[in-house]
Structure prediction request, 78 residues.
Amino acid sequence: MLSFIYLLTHEFEQEHGFRPNVLYLNRTHFAQLQGQLAEIHNLGTMSKLLGMEIVLESDMAHPHVGWSTVDWQGAVAV
Prediction:
């Protein structure tokens, strides 16, 4: 999962000229990422390590990255 996220991030940066700041995942992909980063138990630390906020979307078929001006730390899950 980490190598795939790295690839997505690299492609985004090549296309747009800046790094993405949001990673969109479904719960299955997030569980895989947590397994690869098992030593990190805090979502904030995981986001900081990746350099992106993590947004979970249940209907997401594949992980993707993007750019957002939303303050995700202040956002509320519905």
In short: The helical segments are 2-16, 27-36, 43-50. The mean pLDDT is 90.
